[in-house]
Amino acid sequence: MAIKFDKALGLHAHALELRAERTRLLAANLANESTPGYQARDIDFAASLQQALESEGGGLSLGTTRPEALYRVPNHRSQDGNTVELGVEQAAFSQNASDFQTSLTFINMKLRGLKQAIEG
Q1: Could you tell me the residue ranges of all domains in the chain?
Q2: CA pair distance 16, 41, nearest whole angstrom
Q3: 46-72: average pLDDT
Q4: In angstroms, what CA-CA distances link 117 with 6, 7, 60, 103, 114?
Q5: pLDDT tens figures, 68-94
Q6: Which residues pair with 43 in a beta bridge?
Q7: What's phi and psi for 22, nearest 5 deg?
Q8: For the chain, how big is the Rg over CA atoms in Å?
Q9: What's 79's DSSP letter?
Q10: Any alpha helices (H) in the chain, and if so which ranges?
Q11: Distance between CA atoms of 11 and 23, rounded to whole angstroms?
C-alpha cells in the first residue's frame, strides 16, 4: 500500500511552501529598505493557504504560479516613496521564521510517526 504524503503531512507541507515564499518577499523588503521608490510587498498567508488547499491539484506549484504579492500600506510615508518600515519588516520576518519552524516541527513529528508505523 502506497503512502500519500500530501494527505499524511496535512496542510503543513503547503504552509512550508508559502512560508518560504513569504520569507523571500520579506527578505527583498529588508534588502531594499533604503531604495527610493521601493514598494514593500507581502502575501496574505491565510488566504493563500486556503486557496492552495481548495485548488484542484491540492498543491501550490510555486514553480509555475506564486501566491499574489500584495503591496504593504505604510504607517508613515517617506519622502522618497519607499514604503519599507524596518521595524515592521523585521517583526514580520521574525514571526514568519518562527511559524516556519513550527510547521517543520509538525512535519518531523508526522514523519517520525510514519516511520514508527512502518517499522512496527
Answers
A1: 5-119
A2: 19
A3: 73
A4: 17, 16, 28, 21, 5
A5: 899 998 898 889 999 999 999 999 999
A6: 69
A7: -65, -40
A8: 18
A9: T
A10: 5-9, 12-31, 45-54, 86-119
A11: 18
Instruction: Give the orientation angle of helix 86-119 with respect to helix 12-31, to 10 degrees.
Output: 150
Most confident stretch, 10-14, 32-36, 73-77, 113-117: 32-36
Is residue 11 helix, strand or coil?
A: coil
The type of residue at 19 is R
Cα dihedral across residues 90, 50, 101, 57: positive or negative: negative
CB 64 within 8 A of CB 96: no
Query: Checking phi first, is residue 42 left (phi over 0); if not, alpha (psi -120 to 50) or beta?
Result: beta
Neighbours of 21 (CB within 10 A): 18
pLDDT, residue 2, reads 64
Quickly tell me which residue has 485548488 as its cell. Answer: 55
Q: Could you read off the pLDDT of 15-29 as tens digits, one per residue?
A: 888 999 999 999 999
C-alpha cell belonging to residue 112: 517520525
Q: Give the pLDDT confidence score for residue 1 in this predicted structure.
A: 54
Q: Among 111, 118, 113, 89, which Cα is nearest to 29's?
A: 89
Contact between residue 28 and residue 35 where contact means Cβ atoms under 8 Å apart? no
